[in-house]
Amino acid sequence: VRRTVDILVWLGVAAMAIGLAPLPSSTPETGRRQAFSGLPASWPAPALMAGARFTAFGPLPAPPYPDDNPPSPVKAALGERLFNDPGLSASGQIACASCHNPELAFGDGLKTAFGHDRQRGRRNAPSLRAAAWRPLLFWDGRAASLETQAMAPIVDRREMAADPGDVIRRLNADPTYREAFKAAFGAKRVTQDDMARALAAYQRTLKPQASKWDRVLTRGGAVLDDQELLGLELFQGKAGCVNCHNGPLLSDGQFHNLGLSFYGRKLQDLGRYEVTGAPVDVGAFQTPSLRGVSRNGPYMHNGLFPTLEGVVNFYDAGGARPRPTAAQQADPLFPTTSPFLRPLGLTSEEKAALVAFLRTL
Ligand code: HEC
Ligand code: HEC
Fold it and tell me: Rounded distance, CA 284 to CA 35, Å?
């Protein structure tokens, strides 16, 4: 590369010497490489739209934890045992790990999850590797902490379908559990709150797998190859991803409508609206973290896209823009797709570069 640049520079000098227009002294690739070679703070400013909530890219800090559940290895080990124990379900066959499989980035690799009696859930099981840092949990943000989240799948009729009283009785009947709870919490009896605390403590020990992006954050964009660099430039420029995917998690923690709510149709999912009842939230879902995203398909709250190529084609088209039927024209709840999405006009080379960049995360 350096030789080529030297030759181009000499040609430019020679051209100027004989009175021709100067050739550019660097190729676009070398310009991009220079611009992104350092740490994120030195990169060209991301192209943000009005209303975007931007936090700088950076390494993940230590996970926050609540005062009433400080971290401890004993508690986390107990939480891991509970997480893998199908005894927390009515059938005695479904554990948290059934849908959050450690070998599948703590997801299940399925479009939407199967639970009790092999009933199909309506949403995709997210990876839990970044759960400790999420401001709100679930695609619609209905749980505020891992402690309050933990009982939801245990009692959900389509997931573990258990009676919490039965689960706690079963744990109290097992002397090895009683002992482990005593070691972790100092109490004689197993309680529902302590079970939730242990599950949360375990999940706070999970973290995204080390990736090339971690090296970018400590050593600079110079560690990326040309294609990945182009992908980064698009991600925080022309493709607009950075408007919602930013900060250490590559998520703004906000709710946006990409047009995937299937409003008024069989697969309708109103997302955040189900929690807030606010019309602006119809079809809005919380921006997921993109850390480790290449291992986390199928994608979106409904697992609509099996591949990252599919996701990028979707964004290239400007997301989905469902049109109201005649009967829906006057419906105040008819969802509006985020103004941050618009057709991007990416070339096939640019789409491939975006995917290559996503794989570094
Ligand atoms: C039957 C499959 C299934 C089982 C079993 C299951 N989950 Fe989940 N989990 C899901 C699905 C699907 C979602 C997304 C649901 C939603 O957003 O409405 C989810 C979401 C979560 C989230 C939120 C993650 C985020 O980033 O928003 C956490 C945390 C979680 N589960 C932990 C657990 C724990 C702990 C257990 C066991 C007590 C468990 N899950 C059992 C399928 C399952
Ligand atoms: C308007 C905010 C916004 C913009 C802009 C945006 N995203 Fe997203 N992204 C989201 C939200 C919200 C979801 C989840 C939506 C859903 O499930 O309905 C998501 C989901 C994804 C997923 C799926 C992750 C998973 O675990 O399922 C990927 C991959 C992704 N985005 C990549 C991108 C890329 C690449 C771009 C730029 C071309 C981009 N996003 C632009 C908000 C945004």
Answer: 35
